[in-house]
Specification:
- The chain has six helices and no strands.
- It has 160 residues and is mainly α.
- 81% of the residues lie in helices and 0% in strands.
- It is elongated.
Length: 160
């Protein structure tokens, strides 16, 4: 697969180097937000005094949604389709995070956690594919750096 032209990808006329940096930064930022999504279960467990079975159920729902989101994003062949999937995933993630534990129904919150997982999966599936297409050399390094930002996002959410 040929690398994409960053100026075409983001509609910028800053030149290829500025476009690559902007897209790389956006990928890193998305992955940091993904880390916040992973940390939300721990925060909810502590703040809401959830039991072990409830935490396990939330994690299972999140991981099932995550796998589905990655699968959907991974099956997309074109960048335009991936962009729409990412936009839908961002909206779903934001909506689910806003509604999470606003109502006491555990079943509803487990479903919302599945939606959080789907949104996070779209981040994972689209940002990795974008970084691979942006960098001909050093692809694995970019993916590793990107995943480091997941850890930073998890740590940043601890005080929440």
């Amino acid at each position: 697969m040929a690398p994409i032209s960053p100026s075409v990808a983001i509609g910028s006329n800053k030149g290829a180097a500025g476009g690559v940096l902007a897209l790389t930064g956006a990928c890193y930022s998305a992955m940091a937000f993904l880390g916040v999504g992973f940390a939300i279960v721990g925060v909810a467990a502590h703040e809401l005094k959830l039991g072990a079975s409830q935490v396990g159920t939330l994690v299972a729902c999140q991981q099932a949604g995550f796998a589905g989101g990655v699968l959907i994003a991974g099956l997309a062949r074109s960048g335009a389709v991936r962009a729409r999937i990412l936009a839908a995933g961002c909206l779903l993630l934001a909506l689910c995070l806003l509604l999470f534990f606003r109502h006491p129904s555990f079943a509803l919150n487990a479903a919302l956690m599945g939606g959080i997982g789907i949104g996070m999966g779209t981040f994972e599936g689209t940002t990795d594919a974008l970084l691979i297409r942006l960098y001909k050399d050093g692809q694995s390094r970019q993916i590793n750096i990107s995943h480091f930002f997941v850890t930073l996002g998890q740590q940043a959410s601890r005080p929440i």
